[in-house]
Amino acid sequence: SWETLPRLLPRFIARFDDLSELADWLEVGLPTLEDIIAELTRPGRDPRDELPPPILRQDVLTMEDLRPGMRLRGTVRNVVDFGAFVDIGVKQDGLIHVSQMGDRYVRNPHDLLAVGDIVDVTVLSVDVERGRIGLRLEGRA
C-alpha cells in the first residue's frame, strides 16, 4: 500500500550498490529515478488522488446497476502485467484483462495503457458477491 511504501523503499534501494545501478535495472534515467523516489517517499500522498474523476452515468451508481453489454467511460487507475484497473464510477474498479485489450495479442498492457488514460469499456461480467467487474477495452476516449 502507499502507506507502507516509504518504509520499504530504503530496503529495496539498499539491494543495489548505487542509484545508477537501480536506474539501469529499471531501464530509466537517473534523474527520472530520483524524481520517482522523491515522489514516492512524500508522506501521506497517493498520486492516484490527482487523476481525473470518471465520467459518471446517472443510471450507474453501484455494482448492482451494472449489466453485461453496458458501454461506459472510465479512468485507468492502475496497469499491471495481467491487465488494467479502471474506475467506472462505482465503488469497485473494473478489470480489463490483457486478453480483452484488443483483437491482437497484447504482450505488455503498459504499452497500450497508462494510469490516468480515459477509456471506453464494455461490461463483460459483474460478480457482486466477490466484488469483481470484468471489462473489455473499446477504445480511448
Explain what the structure shows:
By secondary structure, the protein is α+β, with helices and mostly antiparallel strands. The protein folds into two domains: 5-45; 63-140, Nucleic acid-binding proteins (OB fold (Dihydrolipoamide Acetyltransferase, E2P)), CATH 2.40.50. It contains three helices and five strands, in the order αααβββββ. The protein has helices spanning 5-13, 19-26, 30-40, and strands spanning 71-80, 83-87, 94-97, 118-127, 132-140. Strands 1-2-3-5-4 form a five-stranded mixed barrel. The longest helix has 11 residues, at 30-40. The radius of gyration is 18 Å and the shape is elongated. The mean pLDDT is 82.
What is the compact description of this entry?
By secondary structure, the chain is of the alpha+beta class. The protein is 20% helix and 27% strand. A five-stranded mixed barrel has the order 1-2-3-5-4.
Elements, N to C (H/E): HHHEEEEE
Beta strand count:
5
User: What Rg is obtained from the alpha carbons, in whole angstroms?
Assistant: 18 Å
CATH topology of the largest domain: OB fold (Dihydrolipoamide Acetyltransferase, E2P)
Considering DSSP H and I runs of 4 or more, what fraction of the residues is helical?
10-25%
Can you tell me the residue ranges where pLDDT is under 50 for at least 5 consecutive residues?
Answer: none
Q: Biggest sheet: strands side by side, in what order?
A: 1-2-3-5-4
Terminus-to-terminus distance = 29 Å
Shape: elongated
- Count of alpha and pi helical runs: 3
Percent of sequence in beta strands: 25-35%
CATH architecture of the largest domain: Beta Barrel
**Nearest-integer average pLDDT:** 82
Structural class: alpha+beta
CATH C-level of the largest domain: Mainly Beta
Would you identify the CATH H-level superfamily of the largest domain?
A: Nucleic acid-binding proteins
The figure for the number of domains is 2
Could you give a short account of the major beta sheet? Answer: 5 strands, mixed, barrel
